């Protein structure tokens, strides 16, 4: 590379244009000039002052946007945003961070969906804690990659320490291990992959060498999970070559928890049919109802049939740090594997999740020795790639690390406890409101309900009309940007859903969403009357 003179290149004093060298437009000039200009954007010792200034611009832009935020969304339509994004000419760089951030306001920031707003109550997205945002800045700048020791060093030790911390909280025992993943879906997938290969191994086959040349055996494997479990269980079964039909949907009770007797009956029936129970998957916090399956009883049933016992605690995992609700996870210590999403109930930015396993040795099912990366001869090196289905991988663990070091686990638990209390308060409000029907009492921090008022003639709105109306209410409210709520179906009927994870929201905030839903519903009904 051509030598770079200090005149040409940054550190960028605040207020100057990054990447713009006096009189030269970015992307123009001689190749050497182009390299010089480009190199000014590399994060290194020479450019560290510029880095600080530029990142600060980005951080300040977001902070200003969030301070001015009065509702979770603007209601911008896909067409509008597509037009604005498509209007950007990617062939002509702005060469200037301030200008690009200004443009970003237009194509993204102003119309983003803001999870920190008290009237965002839709999906399992949390407001994020500042210590984790500090970590995001650090981890992406250092850019460690978790696959091998020689790309991560201390980052590997921090991830390992957090895995053993979480496994300890769950009571998984001295042989436990695990790995950070991109999310609950990936954690569930890896758990079922381990379960499948472990089952095949118990049956005296070698899954790594026989690969998927085991069709007659694979055809017989069954995964038992509740009808309310997350779709990633079914999707994983398909990706593992077992097919959707390998998943046996076990009945839930009124409380949306898996019925252990129904599980026992399904396991016995499968055995009778010559099938092989590969795994029982319990959910600790279902996505809709927050229901926690009876873990102890399901663990016993799984053991009785030699099946792997996986607990999907993507949502309920935060209970491990709860001061008041930890007991809801009782029995989780019996799991062979557990999914925990830190980006849900630990208030971490996306993405941050982990798969924990009772027996570290089971992670060998995802170990592959590549000569260039983690040769078998170097097994004494702590290479996390040996435990992961990913290769290059973010140091997401740092977010939880700084969160625990700055705030502590009890503070996280208090935030989740607060959301659980909020849901219970809002549940009482909805249960006593004659215009609304609550599908079930809240168990964690969700509420499933619908608007179904009495009509002027004193009769309830019909089921079909309520189905249409509640979907229309949700769309209208989303389009207004005033609030964001989710929708789901219960026994084929359409409901609305609040997922509450914001400790700063009070019952009165959620009550004002309820009023918005009511007035929106009433005016949609009135308009329909007029048009009939
Ligand atoms: C959210 C969720 C998942 C999926 O997790 P992602 O992080 O979105 O991949 C799995 N299971 C349950 C119960 C969940 O709530």
Protein architecture, described:
- The chain is of the alpha/beta class and 532 residues long.
- The protein folds into 3 domains: 50-118, PLP-dependent transferase-like, CATH 1.20.1650; 144-395, Type I PLP-dependent aspartate aminotransferase-like (Major domain) (Aspartate Aminotransferase, domain 2, 3-Layer(aba) Sandwich), CATH 3.40.640.10; 411-531, Aspartate Aminotransferase, domain 1 (Alpha-Beta Complex), CATH 3.90.1150.
- Helices cover 41% and strands 12% of the residues.
- It contains 17 helices and 12 strands.
- The strands form 2 sheets. A 7-stranded mixed beta sheet has the order 2-8-7-6-5-3-4, sandwiched between helices. Strands 1-11-12-10-9 form a 5-stranded mixed beta sheet.
- Helix 7 packs across helix 10 (231-239).
- The longest helix has 25 residues, at 507-531.
- It starts with 30 loop residues before the first helix and ends with a helix.
- Residues 1-24 have low confidence and may be disordered.
- The protein binds pyridoxal-5'-phosphate (PLP).
- The site of pyridoxal-5'-phosphate has 15 residues, from helix 7.
């Amino acid at each position: 590379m051509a030598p770079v003179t200090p005149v040409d290149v940054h550190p960028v004093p605040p207020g100057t244009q990054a990447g713009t060298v006096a009189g030269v437009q970015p992307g123009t000039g001689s190749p050497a000039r182009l390299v010089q200009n480009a190199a000014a954007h590399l994060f290194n010792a020479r450019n560290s002052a510029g880095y600080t200034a530029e990142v600060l611009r980005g951080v300040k832009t977001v902070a200003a946007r969030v301070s001015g935020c009065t509702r979770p969304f603007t209601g911008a339509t896909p067409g509008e945003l597509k037009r604005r994004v498509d209007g950007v000419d990617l062939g002509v760089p702005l060469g200037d961070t301030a200008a690009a951030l200004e443009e970003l306001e237009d194509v993204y920031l102003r119309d983003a969906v803001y999870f920190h707003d008290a009237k965002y109550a839709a999906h399992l997205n949390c407001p994020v804690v500042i210590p984790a945002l500090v970590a995001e800045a650090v981890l992406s700048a250092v850019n460690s990659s978790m696959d091998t020791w020689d790309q991560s060093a201390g980052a590997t030790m921090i991830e390992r320490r957090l895995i053993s911390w979480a496994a300890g909280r769950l009571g998984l025992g001295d042989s436990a291990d695990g790995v950070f993943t991109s999310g609950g879906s990936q954690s569930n997938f890896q758990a079922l992959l381990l379960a499948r290969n472990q089952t095949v191994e118990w049956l005296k086959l070698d899954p790594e060498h026989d690969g998927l040349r085991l069709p007659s055996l694979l055809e017989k494997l069954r995964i038992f999970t509740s009808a309310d479990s997350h779709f990633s269980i079914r999707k994983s079964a398909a990706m593992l070559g077992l097919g959707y039909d390998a998943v046996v949907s076990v009945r839930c009770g009124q409380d949306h928890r898996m019925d252990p007797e129904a599980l026992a009956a399904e396991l016995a029936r499968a055995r009778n049919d010559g099938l092989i129970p590969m795994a029982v998957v319990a959910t600790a916090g279902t996505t809709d109802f927050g229901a926690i399956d009876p873990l102890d009883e399901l663990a016993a049933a799984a053991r009785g049939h030699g099946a792997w016992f996986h607990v999907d605690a993507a949502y309920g995992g935060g209970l491990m740090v709860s001061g008041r609700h930890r007991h809801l996870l009782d029995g989780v210590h019996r799991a062979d594997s557990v999914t925990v999403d830190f980006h849900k109930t630990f208030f971490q930015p996306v993405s941050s999740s982990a798969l924990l396993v009772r027996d570290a040795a089971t992670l060998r099912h995802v170990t592959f020795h590549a000569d260039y990366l983690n040769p078998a001869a170097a097994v004494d090196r702590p290479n996390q790639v040996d435990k992961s289905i990913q290769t290059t991988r973010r140091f997401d663990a740092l977010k939880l690390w700084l969160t625990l070091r700055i705030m502590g686990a009890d503070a996280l638990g208090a935030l989740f406890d607060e959301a659980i209390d909020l849901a219970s308060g809002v549940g009482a409000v909805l249960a006593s409101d004659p215009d609304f029907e609550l599908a079930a009492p809240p168990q964690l921090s969700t509420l499933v309900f619908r608007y179904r008022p009495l009509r002027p003639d004193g009769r309830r709105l019909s089921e079909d009309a309520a189905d249409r109306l509640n979907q229309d209410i949700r769309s209208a409210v989303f389009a207004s940007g005033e609030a964001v709520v989710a929708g789901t179906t219960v026994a084929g009927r359409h409901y609305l859903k609040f997922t509450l994870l914001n400790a700063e929201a009070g019952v009165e905030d959620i009550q004002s969403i309820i009023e918005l839903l009511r007035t929106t519903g009433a005016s949609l009904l009135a308009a329909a009357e007029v048009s009939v």
